[in-house]
Amino acid sequence: MAALIRPPGTYVHGISLSNFYPCQALSRHGRLVAPDFFAIGDPELRAAHTSVRQTSIDYLRTKGLPESIMTPRAGECVQIAAIIRGGGHVGIGADNTKWFSREHMNKILRRGDIELELEEVRREVRPESASRLCSLWVAEDSDVGKAHVRDMLGPDVFVLRVSVPYAIRFTRVDTTWFERYSRTRMREYAENYWNGRHSGDAATWEFLVEGCIEAVDSADLEYIRENGGHLELQRRQRERVESATEPHDGSTSDPPPPVS
User: Fold this and answer.
1) Which residues of 113-143 are buried (b: 16+ CB within 10 A; e: fewer)?
2) Is 119 within the bounds of a domain?
């Protein structure tokens, strides 16, 4: 097992309050854990989990993820993109599915292609680095870092302060190279990204964490507990339970009167 890293200081991380998974994990445990790090501490999961790092680019492109837990980035840019490449149609919701438009699916494919190309370059030039497809993403704990999170994830993202108590890989890279590569697909920019080079005055640092991030402000956690997407799922579950226990034949659910 790789040696544990304990990066000092605090960082910022962004989540969507409508996303069940991070809201549930933060509400319950106050932390989020990257897939490979999670597998280290759970023998049953470790036996079933196959890391993206150990999976060929061709497999990821054509078949998606092997049996494993995944990050949201890998879920969209690998798993969903592979389904679309195979001719599938994807959407949101098991009931009353909202199917994605062709334009939206093409955007997923483009993001997926870029992520797989970057992963291929990482494996060649800096294989020891954290992978974008296996990592949690944090930025500097500053006004610049918070603005960076909102630029990446949208103005409505909820930004919380976190620490990194444990990691097996922790990589600092300049997002500017990623953005330049996304526009031009020039390999030099991908190599600069993975080599951690400074792009100049426009440098914006991001940190890829194959490990655990932990909320440091109780007010952030309380806000998530009171406003997170896990509450909507809990409400729906209660409604299903109540609906299942309600009589549907016109009778009441009260017990019959005793017979004298």
Assistant:
1) ebbbbbbbbbeeebeebbbbbbbbbbbbbee
2) yes
User: Is 94 inside a domain boundary?
Assistant: yes
User: Could you tell me where the DSSP H helices lie in 126-257?
Assistant: 143-153, 175-184, 187-194, 218-227, 230-245
Residues 52 and 161 in one domain: no
Residue 226, class by beta-carbon neighbours within 10 Å (0-12 exposed, 13-18 middle, 19+ buried)? exposed
Query: Dihedral of the CA atoms 170, 22, 86, 88 (nearest 10)?
Result: -170
* 98 and 207 together in one domain: no
Number of domains in the chain: 2
The β-bridge relationship of strands 136-140 and 158-174 is unpaired
**Helix, strand, coil % over all residues of the chain, rounded to 5:** 50, 20, 35
Report pLDDT for 147: 96
d(Cα 107, Cα 81) in Å, to the nearest integer? Answer: 9
- Does the pLDDT value for residue 25 go beyond 80? yes
The tens digit of pLDDT for each residue in 173-200 reads 999 999 999 999 999 999 999 999 999 8
Dist. CA 39–CA 48, nearest whole Å: 9
